[in-house]
Amino acid sequence: MPAGSSAMIDESILHALREIVGPEHVLTDPEDLLLYAYDASIHSGRPDVVVFPESTEQVSRIMALAHAHRIPVIPRGGGTNLSGGSVASQGGIVLTLSRMTKVREIDIPNQRAVVEAGLYNLALQEILAPYGYLYAPDPASQKVSTLGGNVAENAGGPHCLKYGVTTNHVLGLEVVLYDGRVIQLGGKAFDTPGYDLVGLLVGSEGTLGVVTAVTVRLLHVPEAIKTMLAIFDDLDGASQAVSDIIAAGIVPATLEMMDQLMMRAVEEATHAGYPTDAEAVLIIELDGLKDGMEEIAEQIVEICRRNRARAVQVARSAEERDKLWAGRRGAFGATGRIKPAYLVNDGTVPRTALPQVLRQVREIGQRYGLPIGNVFHAGDGNLHPLILFDPREEGILELVERAGAEIMRICVEAGGTITGEHGIGLEKIHGMPLIASPAAIQAMRWVKEAFDPIDLLNPGKVLPQTSVGVPS
Question: Which of 165, 169, 176, 247 is placed for a possible disulfide with 210 were both Cys, Cβ 3.0 to 4.6 Å?
Fold first, then answer.
């Protein structure tokens, strides 16, 4: 049964929402609603009301109210979603968790923390630093992306090559269900009995429940870090170096790639020291014990030289390291110096397929007359081709979407998938049949119906809406 229409949000419901969170935390003015009509994707959809709860109890009451009146609810964190997942495509209530930023517990002896969903990823890192600990997932948007949003998208980041993505570091969730009930899944202990509902909720994009608090695993800050910049005059050499490093049994903390178009944009914006005449660079970072790190670094330098690296530079100080990373983390924003908008794909392919797929991506850009810049997690084959465009050009959006669909297809044909960490949202629904059979999509739909039988939570996202029959 579909959620009710946004027309059901009348003055009595607005009054009830104001009673729950306070009048100043309910937005209805057209100008305010416009600010919450979009995320970091190319999609938009204006909500009927934006609500800012401060506690799980308030979220529970809002969900119970929405359930009673069949009103769609779209959970939202920092609005950095890159696939339209936090857009109110069917109107309704945008439930913004940005006031829920409490750190409920830092348990250093057990290497755990319990934090609310609205806390920024980087804020958690800064809180943990004095203890000598860190939370491993580090998306490039960590300054403004929330832990709840990271859970929704199963976010990764540059360090996911060695440490894994969000699901590898989340042990427990506090979740508000579609009708307002609050449940606790998992906790501080490993191997909670029963079905892995924590694993099911991580990456579910707000379609199964509203995550209000997260129990995360902490890691000790590594003893030593070494950051290198390998400079290449051809993409194939850089791509092959990535495969050869991993094949040699070396697992760097990060192994990032950036092509010439992106380097030029980043240099104009941040002056990070990237060579704009090179075809590609690899940002390679080792971390761990100091003993033996020099030998591993020498192996990496030799592999890069064997693959025609022009030079391999080593950051000589924390300041130089931070400068290199400031360029990488600011890469998406820097594209504004080339074109005012972009569509980013995040298909993932086997590392050995990188040279082939990067050539195909370049050909797609040439065929459509669209500049495409690449900056991505090369170590695990997680591509981030940014299709750059000016939305004011007539007919350009259709071209961009067609090019994006082709990139998804070539990733799948290379043995990969359509998203590594940005989610399906609205943008990649049409790509789901590329990676899932009709029976598999139906099984996912059954999961959605079990958690949200009246389709209140983030409706219209992730799954194709057409019902799929399954042989009996």
Answer: 176
Per-residue model confidence as pLDDT tens digits over 144-165: 999 999 999 999 999 999 999 9
Mean pLDDT, all residues of the chain: 94
**CATH class of segment(s) 222-335:** alpha beta
Q: Maximum Cα–Cα distance for the chain, whole Å?
A: 70
Q: What is the pTM of this model?
A: 0.93
- Residue 471: pLDDT above 70? no
- Report pLDDT digits (tens) over 63-106: 999 999 999 999 999 999 999 999 999 999 999 999 999 999 99
By the 8 A CB rule, do 91 and 6 touch? yes
CATH 1.10.10.10 fits 339-421, yes or no: no
Cα gap 376→463, rounded to integer Å: 26
User: Could you tell me which CATH class the domain 6-96 is placed in?
Assistant: alpha beta
Each domain of the chain, given as residue ranges in start order, spans: 6-96, 103-220, 222-335, 339-421
pLDDT at site 466 = 65
Domains 222-335 and 339-421 share a fold: yes
Tell me the DSSP string of 232-263. Answer: ESSHHHHHHHHHHHHHTT---SEEEEEEHHHH
Backbone φ and ψ for 28, nearest 5 degrees, come out as -135, -10
pLDDT reported for residue 185: 97
Question: Is the Cα torsion angle 254, 420, 187, 113 positive or negative in sign?
Answer: positive
Question: CATH for 103-220?
Answer: 3.30.465.10
Residues 6+ apart with CB under 8 A from 407: 345, 347, 361, 364, 383, 385, 387
